[in-house]
Protein: Arginine deiminase
Organism: Auxenochlorella protothecoides
Amino acid sequence: MTLSQSFKDMLAVAPAPTQPISKTNGGVPVAPAPEVKAAHTSGPRPKASALLKEKYNLKGVQESENDRAEIVIVCEPEGTSLQMGGLHPRASLYEKPVNLEAAKTAHAEFRNVMREKGVRVLTVREILAYGTEDHVGARVDLEDFAVQALTYQLAKDGRMEDIEEADRYYLSDEYKRKVLEHMSVPQLIDTILINPTVHLAPSYRDTGLTATYSFQPLSNLVYTRDQQITTCRGVVMGSLRSPQRALEVSLMRFCFAKLGVPVVGEVQLPGYLEGGDFFPAGRDLALLGIGLRSNLAAARQLMDGDLLGTRRLAVVRDDFEQHQDRMHLDCVFSILSDNLCIMLEEMMGDASPTRRLVDEYVRGADGRYALERTDVEFSRYMREQGYEIIPIAPAHQLLYGCNCLNLGEERIVSVHQDTARAIVKSPHFHGDVQCIDYSPITSMYGAVHCSSQVIKRAVRR
Ligand SMILES: NC(=[NH2+])NCCC[C@H](N)C(=O)O
């Protein structure tokens, strides 16, 4: 298989594989890779994931949104799962109807912009496909994962007795494995992303069976921000609130296992954590929005499990609004530098009916976080932390002005011209903004911050 551009990027940065990483980090114990159930079902032979792990030290880390982004995971808006999402945009958590070809072009442009700025961009499809041609282990891992995605079952009201004895094999896992074994890699990936259930009934003729189909497609995987967060400690898996998105977490976990990126923790129910609510602001402070999507139970798990690595956590409560147009903190706020942020204007100030309120937790000498302050209005809180604020008009928020991506060192990718101009005109901004047309993807309710997971940023020392 020819290496895709992103893996060429990775090879370009990966340290020469002279010794296994575990021996090159001064004897510091390496966190064990997360267990992917499917990947460990068959025997002790080496897997592609193991090969990758030895070649690349890919421990995730993100201390500040303004640190230089090194590795970003994205997911192209491609394939049948997106096609299905587009059949009923509202029921797929989309804002508007989508044009898939236009979305592909816009996303390719986004990837190019990041690559031009020196970021290693990996796509979910490339990670899933990686090594499957050269390593049987990688191919088998992918098939094992697809076994969980594809379900064969008797049609409703169907009875096994009505199916000829010889045909019952065609409902079995054995048959399913054989089917998957013969698929091409793109076909396997598409199967995983559409999550099909095949409902089987007797046809009493020809091949003996007939089928109808239902699907739980992963139509929002393009928003790789949300299935996990990357903290000072590393990658922490989230817990998605909408049933349409719940299956995305296990797929991303599979990708991290394959890349050899350790997953340091996972938020469990009743906790809900979506990455669009999380902002790292240095080793001292992280912010987490709670409201429509993420919740306090998740914040507590992050603190109790010591998964943040920061001294303080600001929980930014959306008590009063909880609207899909502003579902995550990254829809109304972003960090542009160490002392500059943007924020939706109408929610600023004690008098705003949609104000956000901050509860601040501080880690004590015993390592435990304690609630130190409550109900601090968000813009006041950010100013107290030393940030200047560029206010964003409501109409510009709706055009995803706030949802920009900071590639670090004040290099911003924006999707909204007027916001981009407001940023560069600020006397407090000293960086660079590149504006791209991303409207074919904002149709699905998110822009460039939502559709990127920065798993590694350079650590400032
Ligand atoms: N980080 C974000 N703001 N993500 C946007 C996710 C959009 C997606 N359609 C949803 O409603 O879940």
